[in-house]
Design a protein that fits this description.
Two copies of one chain form a homodimer.
Chain A (H helix, E strand, L loop, with lengths): L3 H14 L7 H11 L6 H13 L5 H24 L4 E2 L2 E2 L1 H5 L1 H23 L2 H26 L5 H26 L4 H28 L2 H4 L5 H5 L4 H9 L2 H12 L5 H14 L2 H21 L9 H12 L3
Antiparallel strand pairs in A: 1-2
Helix pairs in contact in A: 1-3, 1-4, 2-6, 3-4, 3-8, 4-6, 4-7, 4-8, 7-8, 8-9, 9-15, 9-16, 12-15, 13-14, 15-16
């Protein structure tokens, strides 16, 4: 069994081995930049860990699939940053802010095509491809819901979980399932690993919401409060709306829709409402519930406990992360 | 053998049979709109004609591949219209002008994913997929070159053909090759059909350049002169630059870069330079040369002459089109 750092190193080596043409420079330079932006490579490592549970040995096809999901993830970040008008990601300028909208659209498109080249070439069977295809569509649906929800004054918790389930959890779940499928795991184990990673993905998104409001900005690589400024419907938002009543709830919704306040002031006031609603604690409770459910799914996977230790550690690390 | 109209009808029926979820509405409504915009379905018909040359009978896999290339083409139109700030296509508002940038990016992304689902599901062998993958990347490269060239005062004819070869000819050529490959044609015939469609694709783009400047606007479905207004490097532009000398050449380049003139006036003046350079005739000459070369490639395909008649007629129709 390989540890997170061993697999992350393998992924990083394989990523460094990807080569793109030199020209058109405005197409391939943003792609190289986006791929070498020092992400955590959670999806490819998760895929490889799940393959490692069942395969005799990790093969090139597993690594290619893992790169495919990472490139897909990278494509979504490039395009999401256009829609979110984001200027920073992981402490560096986004592709759209560095090269403009056209280059960001096209380099994202080309990245999606590269992702499909890798996945189609390595899938081997229809089930692996189906899992990827399904998640690919769900991620687009989730991003569209996210954009739609920005325009709505409020949404329910169910709507929140439906959105982040597609936007964030689906690709993590598909990564786990693809790794297991490519290593010929049985259907029941594929489903359990899918469930494990799906619930973990929801918890991961809660941690994202948490960090966007409360992270140490220096560690975080970008300013906190971005979600509040953009009117994103985070878990902190939906649980605050659900907890407040009457005048206070109205004031909160009014605040979240205003464009008149300076960002810092809006963030400060929003966090006061979060505190009244005990939203931080509600988020941590929900995160723990999801984490425990994920662990239960993992426990049911038919592999010896000690073989699953790296997956447990990965899950824990995702929830304790500061960035 | 099936005629253009028989195959176009089959494609239209199959397209009408594609179904997408109802929600998120802002994702799937633009996709439906873009697919039902009454395009000519040249690429899927070309693919089916090339399959029909060698297959006993056209099968579902051929139709699925043909839909895949049409959906891919449709994805490129949605995203290109964002980059080109185009408000009309085929006489109707573009997706970006109707639903905005975010919805256009995402519905284009989801369309590309649907294209890959169809092509991967029906490819059957690696060669079909490789042909599609190669073209997919080339189309992105060609579009990037097109965007790059807008910023340059001038380009050479070689640069022009390299750009339109990728942006327009590559997908037509891949469609022909994919059809032949999926019907188990031999390598030599696949190559000849690729060459046929590639040269035809270049001629097709010349006709596009011609129509953008000289079409009957009512038949054309949008205003003429769009390429001149946008500073596009068309064949008319490059052959005018190549034909003019000294002061006249400088004046033309200056005119094409100006943003101060009203569009109608700029278009009028540009066309005067085109006339001096005899650019219309140069374009028609180049178009005929390419058309004849395409016909030569087709003639070498090892199938009886009468089986190739529909492809000949398709080629002719593409060059005589008014829209």
């Amino acid at each position: 069994m390989y540890s997170f750092s061993q697999l992350a190193e393998q992924v990083a080596r394989a990523m460094a081995g990807l080569s793109f043409p030199q020209t058109p420079e405005m197409l391939y330079q943003p792609m190289r930049y986006a791929l070498l932006s020092g992400g955590k490579h959670i999806r490819p490592v998760l895929l490889l860990m799940c393959a490692d549970l069942f395969a005799q040995e990790l093969e090139k096809k597993h690594v290619d699939l893992s790169l495919g999901v990472e490139l897909f993830h990278c494509f979504t970040l490039i395009h999401d940053d256009i829609m979110d008008r984001a200027s920073l990601r992981r402490g560096r300028p986004t592709v759209v802010s560095k090269w403009g909208v056209s280059a960001a659209i096209l380099s994202g498109d080309a990245m999606l095509i590269e992702a499909y080249k890798l996945v189609c070439g390595a899938a081997g069977n229809a089930a692996v491809l189906d899992a990827f295809n399904r998640a690919a569509t769900e991620v687009c649906e989730g991003q569209q819901l996210d954009v739609d929800f920005e325009q709505q004054p409020t949404i329910t918790k169910d709507e929140y979980f439906a959105m982040v389930g597609k936007k964030t959890a689906a690709l993590l779940a598909a990564s786990a399932a693809m790794g297991a499928l490519a290593a010929s795991a049985g259907d029941a184990d594929v489903r359990r690993l899918y469930d494990f990673a799906y619930k973990l993905g929801l918890a991961f998104q809660l941690q994202d919401d948490y960090l966007d409001a409360y992270a140490n900005a220096a560690e975080f690589g970008k300013a906190t409060g971005g979600d509040i400024a953009a009117g994103k419907k985070t878990f902190l938002f939906v649980s605050t709306v659900a907890a407040l009543r009457g005048r206070e709830r109205d004031d909160f919704l009014l605040l979240m829709q205003t464009t008149r306040l300076p960002t810092a002031e809006k963030v400060l006031q929003a966090k006061r409402f979060y505190a009244k609603a005990n939203a931080q604690q509600l988020l941590k409770d929900a995160e723990n519930t999801l984490f425990n459910a994920a662990m239960q799914s993992l426990a049911q996977v038919s592999a010896p406990r000690e073989r699953k230790e790296h997956l447990e550690r990965l899950a824990l690390a995702l929830l304790q992360r500061k960035t």
